[in-house]
Amino acid sequence: MRSIGLLGGLLSLAGVFVTTVRGDNPIVQTDFTADPAPIVYNDRLYVFTSHDEDDTSSGFFNMKNWRLFSTVDMANWLDHGIPMTLSTFSWASKDAWAGQVVQRNNRFYYYVPITRSGGCMAIGVGVSDRIEGPYKDAIGKPLIENCQIDPTVYIDDNGQAYLYWGNPDLTYVKLNADMISYSGNVQKVTPSNGGYQEGPWFYKRGSLYYMIYAGTCCSENIRYATSNSPTGPWSYRGVVMDTQGKSFTNHPGMIDYKGSSYFFYHNGALPNGGGFTRSVAVERFTYNSDGTIPKMSMTSGPPQIGTVDPYVRQEAELIAWSSGLKTEACGEGGQNVAFINNGDYIKIRGVAFGAGATALNVRVASAGSGGNIEVRLGSQSGFLVGTCKVPSTGGWQTYTTVTCSISGATGTQDLFWKFTGSGTGELFNFNWWQFTSGGSGSSQAPTSTSLPSSSRPSTATASSSTASSNPSCSKLYEQCGGESWTGPKCCSQGKCTVSNQWYSQCL
């Protein structure tokens, strides 16, 4: 990570804690993330997060957008990029803080606190037909304007949706079925021990309602209360987690996935982490027989569920652990690994090679001198099974597919990409990879090249144009427009979604 100068009085509160990185916790290393909001959709676990910028020179939170990651195995996390930014809301000025996404009416609703232009905090609602976004402002104005933060939403079994939020008060309203309006007045509640501070997470398990929250600022621990009613009264149950890492804040998120229960939270455990540069982590746990939650502390993370198939295309931004690099919006759609320097690496946990791989295809681009992808097993300095040489392609988004020979990759292994190069600065971008189990795999030459743009794409707010059903148009997820694009500008499925001046994608 880049070196960060952390200023401000609040940071001194964070500085008394020891930084410890344990195994593959925190779950994201390419950026600082906070305020996890898990949701299960189509048998995949998604986690929406807020995003702490590297630059904290202001001495306070610097947060401009939200991030999205997902997993199917609780070990390797796929980076989906930026689903929503402050610019989504015309009335916003700063502070993209903790939010939550829920699904209803075949749509996804993203409730977030934002500082209004010329005012204090308000809660807005983003909406999208796709969980990955892009999200747009659902109502063109704030839903809640009482200068408080941290919304959490739960839809009860009878269809009634509740929105809780608040710092230092815990308040709620009953949402209408449209999810963008509410009935009645704002109601205030208090957990019985009076230790509520912020960051509520509201859900139901069986017949019992749970309110998990950050208590006792500063620094915060995670506490919880339960109730037989969605509106209380709430009975205090205890501490879920003491202060972890170097963060003086915390924010919980609870979810059940594939038969296990998981607790998400944030800390300051990454290098250069702290009170304003936080990181999301996760623990697996089991409820006690009476429904109470055991007390937890940070571990190396949950065990992996299943394995990764190396013989289908996998995104380069599928990561269990990484060092030194970042991700960015890719000219071919989705994200790519970027800002790769000599010595950086990526770990993918539990890759099932079976009888053995013989070749590897990698999709890469470089406006510099290129470099090498060393394919190693077990660690970044482990057994070398092959090396892919990445050429200069003339642009950071001018991609080519390189094939290299592989020998010795058998069984189920932790796979490491070790990036090396003799040039100074950034080496190349990395979009996707796929192993093969047959053929010589002896070629080191590019097999195809596209997208001649040599500039890095930005993360501008997306918009959409009308789709076409013409089969000659671009297919779903393919390019459909942008600077220097000469191919089809219509979509056979979905809509041509403009991400920035360099590319559009059928979504």
TrEMBL record:
InterPro entries, A to Z: CBD, CBD_sf, CBM6, Cellulose-bd_IV, Galactose-bd-like_sf, Glyco_hydro_43, Glyco_hydro_beta-prop_sf, Glycosyl_Hydrlase_43_Enz
Residue spans of biased composition, Low complexity class: 442-472
Residues at the active site: D35, E198
Gene3D superfamilies: Galactose-binding domain-like, Glycosyl hydrolase domain, family 43
Positions of the CBM6 domain: 312-436
Signal peptide residues on this chain, from the entry's feature table: 1-23
Residues with site note (Important for catalytic activity, responsible for pKa modulation of the active site Glu and correct orientation of both the proton donor and substrate): D150
A GO BP entry: carbohydrate metabolic process
Keyword Nucleus included in the entry's annotation: no
SMART domains reported in the protein's UniProt record: CBD_IV, fCBD
Record has Signal as a keyword: yes
GO molecular function, one term: hydrolase activity, hydrolyzing O-glycosyl compounds
Chain spans, region Disordered: 441-472
UniProt domain CBM1: residue ranges: 472-507
Keywords: Carbohydrate metabolism, Glycosidase, Hydrolase, Signal
Gene Ontology CC annotations of this record: extracellular region
Family the entry assigns: Belongs to the glycosyl hydrolase 43 family.
Protein name, as recorded: Uncharacterized protein
Species the sequence originates in: Sarocladium strictum (Black bundle disease fungus)
